[in-house]
Amino acid sequence: MQDEKSIEELCTSTWEPLYRFIYYKVQNRQEAEDITQETYMKALTYIQKNNIKIDKHIGFLKTVSLNVLRDKWRKSKRHGKIVDIEAINPEEAAVEDSAEVSAQHDAVQTALNSLKEEYRTVVELRILQGYSVAETAKIMNKQEGAVRVLQYRALQKLAAVLRNRD
């Protein structure tokens, strides 16, 4: 893992699923990018310093990212967030109606529950948990092409259920 080419290969092959995994946790693009970058820095430093061979890179990186997240949450919990009142734009800071958000969440959850189990599983693994097609195929014991078709059909069905709700 010492040479630049192997580091580049690791980052290229794992960036997308790692970023999706982190984004799912933080729900903020900029924070997800920062944590993804910090995850790679810590993981690569650890791998090079200890001269170890990692078999399952994405699993290792997800574990490192969770540790980075926990550290950030602990720090923000201890210190709180510093807010510059003058820099706040009222339109951007306006909070959505929690009742509306809750109703939307309930509608999506109800729509998900109305899907057949196979559709619901593929949506949860691919969209909500951020697994790759290959990882989802392995978990569901299906071919990658079948997972893509299932995901497409599941999202079509989910959209139809949500449209009919309105």
Q: What key phrases describe this protein's structure?
A:
2 domains, Rna Polymerase Sigma Factor, Chain: A, 166 residues
Task: Note down, in words, how this protein is organized.
It is a single chain. The chain is mainly alpha-helical. It folds into 2 domains: 4-79, Rna Polymerase Sigma Factor, Chain: A; 96-165, Arc Repressor Mutant, subunit A (Orthogonal Bundle). The chain contains 8 helices and no strands. The protein has helices at 4-26, 29-50, 57-79, 90-93, 98-114, 117-128, 133-140, 144-165. The chain is flat. It starts with a helix and ends with a helix. The model has no long low-confidence stretch (mean pLDDT 81).
* CATH C-level label of the largest domain: Mainly Alpha
Measured between the Cα atoms of the first and last residue, the distance is 53 Å
| Count of domains | 2
Radius of gyration: 20 Å
State the share of residues found in helices, binned by percent.
over 70%
The CATH topology of the largest domain is: Rna Polymerase Sigma Factor, Chain: A
H/E element sequence: HHHHHHHH
Low-confidence stretches: none
The number of strands is 0
Mean pLDDT equals 81
Query: What share of residues are in beta strands?
Result: under 5%
Q: How does CATH name the architecture of the largest domain?
A: Orthogonal Bundle
Largest sheet, in brief, is: none
> What is the overall number of helices?
8
- Based on CA inertia axes, which overall geometry fits? flat
Structural class: mainly alpha
SSE layout and pairing:
Elements: H1 4-26, H2 29-50, H3 57-79, H4 90-93, H5 98-114, H6 117-128, H7 133-140, H8 144-165
